[in-house]
Amino acid sequence: MKTFNLLTRLLCIASIGLLYNCTSDIESVEDLSLLTQNEQKQSRAKLNVVSVSANGDDGNVPSNTLDGNLNTRWSSKGRSGKYITYDLGSPQKVSRVKIAWYKGDQRKAYFKIRVGNSTSSLTTVLDKKSEGSSGNTRQLETYDFDEVTVRYVRISCFANSSNDWNSITETEIHGGGGTTPPPPPTGSTPYDLLGLQNWKLNGLEGTKSNNTYVDQIPNLSSYTNPDWFFVNNGWAIFQVWAGSDTSSGSGNPRMELRELTANGNNNIFWDGTTSKEHSMKWKVRVDRLPSSGKVCFGQIHDKTDTFDDVIRVQCQGSANQTSGSVKMRINGYVTEVLEGGGKTVGNFNLGEELYLELTYKNSIVRLYELDNNGNRSRTIYTSKSVSAKENYFKAGSYLQSMKGKSYKSSDYGSVGIQKLEVFH
């Protein structure tokens, strides 16, 4: 995913104004939510880590290196004898380790990668004790070596070019040879393509210029419409025009899916304040913007007026834009109420495939970027605490700032979705 262009990256780094206090034994954490991760395409499978341990920490624990969040870390102080060990559970083929170093764009980290089938007998497969890491990125750096079959992977650390700290924000272990992503799903209707048994479609009946809003389109399993809701080259296309009829609670037109219970018989409402994680993964692309330049393509909605749109994941560009870069924006209660306004979290190109995951757990909403295998590769956004208890997911094309607009054949928003899954 080519999220966040170079100019945006440089502006974000400059605006953060990173500070380091070398007199403290506890290093401060910066918010990395605006920084890009130029994730390389996966050529080897990402392996599952059963457990992780270390021979010391400062309260920033080893498990933080496996949480998919570049804002957390493992840290331990010392120029020798400090290490973190990953247990794969059984011998696995390993040929690549990716490491994101805390403050990795300000200093080099010195380390070795050692592997084996017993922690008492490890072999060095990569030695960066003298050369160190690149010193120019805080994102995952890739370290390749000859394939070995091992259970344990240990990163032995020797401090960094600035001080005695060893700090890792994220680690991935890869191997098993080349992997081919599964083929895209097939189907002649959006229902077949996406598997919409547990969704309803908030849509329209009539024509583009004269229509009526329908809360639940009937016969969704066979429904397709060449203007609003159809399959094109393996993507379900959601389109809606300016001036279209909409729900009584919104002046903005939509062609949008709303989550139901697993059997599809009833509306679902789940609690985002508990320790149970609720997740929506979707492969999505935005192809066209309306005259407002704004389209929402995924959200968590609450039943009550207090929270309403808990979070809207949307984009912002120019009027009727069909190509080029747009801003990725976080709107809704989590930013407009809790942070005083919508928040830009990066850039992407219209027509570009995005693979995203939206989660809600322990009153915290997060948006992740996923790799080709559906694993979390980067945290895009983390909210402040928000206590919405009657929630549901939505996805599709929901035009923004379009109240009072009249129909024009050239004024519409278009979104494609190729994969849509929810987990509770």
From TrEMBL:
**Coiled-coil intervals:** none
Q: Which Pfam families match?
A: Alginate_lyase2, F5_F8_type_C
**All residue ranges annotated as the F5/8 type C domain in the record:** 27-176
- What domain of life does the native source organism fall in? Bacteria
Q: Please give the InterPro entries that the UniProt record associates with this protein.
A: Alginate_lyase_2, ConA-like_dom_sf, FA58C, Galactose-bd-like_sf
Instruction: Extract the GO molecular function terms from the UniProt entry.
Output: lyase activity
Sorted UniProt keywords: Lyase
Q: What is this protein called?
A: Polysaccharide lyase family 7 protein
The record lists the organism as: Aquimarina gracilis
